[in-house]
Write a structure and sequence with these properties.
About 35% of the residues lie in helices and about 15% in strands. It is built from eleven helices and twelve strands.
C-alpha cells in the first residue's frame, strides 16, 4: 500500500473500544480512508463462538458482510476465523486493539498472507492502578464496610474499627510481586511510594527494579504478607499458585489477582480462606468467566473482593488502543515496518 492510495478500513468496535474512536484515530493517522463502522457485542460464550479463536464476538456473518472489499480491519473482539478470512480475499491487515490477538486464527492469517498486529501496553497503567485499589480494598475491608451501610443503612461495619477485625496498612508491609512486566513494574513503583517493603520474583527480568529481587518463588511467598500476580498465562504458569504455594505464605496473608485467573488454583484459594490461612483475597479474573453459579467465592464475601474482569477498563485504555491500532494502519499505508506484527 502507498500513501497516495485510499484504503478501505472496517472499524469493528464494541461498547468499550467504540467504532467512532477507531474511525477518528484512523482518520487522524491516515487522512484519506474509507472507514466503515461496525459495532459488535460481547461473546455469548465465555471463550468465543468457535474453538479456533478465544474471547471473540459471535458475529462472523456480520464481519464477512462488513469486510467486503476492505483491505484493513481494526477490531477489539471481532472473530477473524478461517471462514472470515476465506470470505474476505481483499483483507491484508488485521489490527487487534488488545494485548494479544486471541480473536484471530493466526495460522489461517499466515497462510493467506494477512498481517496481524496487536496493541501492547494499552492497559498497563489502568490495570496497575486497579490492582492497587483492589489491594487496598482487601486490606482495609472497604467493600465489607460499605455494603451494610449503603444497602441497609446499618452501622455494623464499624466493627472493623476494632483491633481484631481491623485491616493492614501498606506502609512497612512486605508485599511480593509475582511478575515484573508492564503492569507489575508500575504496581511496584506505586507500592514503594506507599512505603511498602516490595519484593519481586521474575526470572525473566534482569535489569534494575523497584524493590528487592527474590531468587525463588518459594522465598517470595514465605516473606510476603501480600502477594499480587502479574505473570503471563503460559503452560508454565498455569496453576502457578496452588495449595502448596499458599501454604508457604504467613498465616493471615492476602492474595491479589488482576492478571489471569488460571494462574491461581481457585479451589485451593477457597480452602485457604476457609481455614484462615489467608485473611483475604481480591480477584478480578477467574479460572472460568463469567464466574459459574457453583463457585465457592461468593460464599466467602466476608473475606473476598470480587470484580468482573474490569482491571483494564478505563476510557484512556479505549482511546490508547484505538490510537496504537491506527498508528499500525498508518505504517502499513505508508509502506513502513509494522511495530507490533505477529505474522
Amino acid at each position: 500500500m502507498t500513501a497516495g492510495n485510499s484504503v478501505r478500513v472496517v472499524a469493528a468496535g464494541d461498547h468499550f473500544v467504540l467504532p467512532s474512536l477507531i474511525t477518528r484515530a484512523v482518520e487522524q493517522e491516515v487522512g484519506r480512508a474509507d472507514v466503515r463502522e461496525l459495532r459488535l457485542g460481547w461473546p455469548l460464550e465465555p471463550f468465543g463462538p468457535v474453538a479456533e479463536v478465544q474471547e471473540a464476538s459471535d458475529a462472523e456473518d456480520e464481519m464477512i458482510e462488513a469486510l467486503a472489499g476492505a483491505q484493513v480491519l481494526v477490531t477489539q473482539m471481532g472473530p477473524v476465523t478461517e471462514r472470515v478470512l476465506a470470505a474476505c480475499p481483499a483483507l491484508r491487515l488485521v489490527v487487534v486493539c488488545r494485548g494479544g490477538p486471541v480473536n484471530v486464527n493466526l495460522d489461517a492469517a499466515k497462510q493467506r498472507d494477512v498481517r496481524v498486529c496487536f496493541a501492547p501496553g494499552r492497559n498497563a497503567a489502568a490495570t496497575a492502578e486497579f490492582t492497587v485499589g483492589m489491594m487496598l480494598a482487601a486490606l482495609r475491608r472497604i467493600p465489607q464496610a460499605h455494603d451494610p451501610l449503603a444497602r441497609q443503612g446499618s452501622w455494623e461495619g464499624a466493627t472493623y474499627y476494632t483491633y481484631e477485625r481491623s485491616g493492614l496498612e501498606l506502609e512497612d508491609l512486605p508485599v511480593g510481586l509475582v511478575g515484573y512486566g508492564a503492569v507489575g513494574s508500575r504496581v511496584a513503583r506505586v507500592l514503594c511510594a506507599f512505603g511498602a517493603r516490595v519484593m519481586v520474583y521474575d526470572p525473566y527480568v534482569h535489569g534494575e527494579i523497584h524493590g528487592l529481587r527474590v531468587t525463588s518463588l518459594d522465598e517470595l511467598l514465605r516473606r510476603s504478607q501480600v502477594i499480587t500476580l502479574h505473570a503471563r498465562l503460559t503452560p508454565e504458569t498455569r496453576g502457578l499458585i496452588g495449595a502448596r504455594e499458599l501454604a508457604l505464605l504467613p498465616p493471615g496473608a492476602v492474595v491479589v489477582n488482576v492478571a489471569r485467573g488460571p494462574l491461581l488454583d481457585e479451589a485451593a484459594l477457597c480452602d485457604a480462606l476457609e481455614s484462615g490461612q489467608l485473611s483475604a483475597a481480591a480477584l478480578d479474573t477467574y479460572e472460568r468467566e463469567p464466574l459459574p453459579a457453583e463457585s465457592r467465592l461468593p460464599g466467602l464475601s466476608e473475606r473476598v473482593v470480587l470484580t468482573p474482569h474490569l482491571g483494564g477498563a478505563s476510557r484512556a485504555v479505549a482511546e490508547k488502543a484505538a490510537r496504537i491500532a491506527a498508528e499500525e494502519v498508518g505504517r502499513w499505508v505508508r509502506g513502513e515496518p509494522l511495530a507490533h506484527c505477529l505474522t
